[in-house]
Structure formats: structure tokens, C-alpha cells
Known about the structure:
The chain has about 70 residues and is mostly helical.
Amino acid sequence: MRQGVAVSERRACGLVGLARTTMRRRVLEKPANEALKVRIVDLAHALERFGYRRIHDLLRREGVRANHKRLYR
């Protein structure tokens, strides 16, 4: 939005309803999270009827220690 129109960061964030700190924040993914994401997607594609709770149980049986809330996200 700021590139298309000459508007300050403060005004652009105010118009969109976004906090200025959110715009500047850089997300750093951990390598362990990437491996967990891949495994969750693999299980979800293989076992389409299973929800996140059942996938959490399967991962726990495999030895993955991940919180069910983290899995849901």
C-alpha cells in the first residue's frame, strides 16, 4: 500500500488497522517446526479422516513431544 501511494507508515497501518510493530516483525521459523509440519501434512494426507487430536496421538506414539495446541496451530 505504501509503495502505490505516498503515505506514511503510521497512516497506512492506521487505515488498515494493523499495529506498526506487527508490520516490522520478522518471523523466524525453527528447523524442528519445519520437520514437524512436514510430518503432520504427511499424516493428514495419508489418513484424511483423522483430525488434529488423533494425529497428535499418532505423533506421540512415534516419540514426538509436541503440545496439542501447537499441533492445532
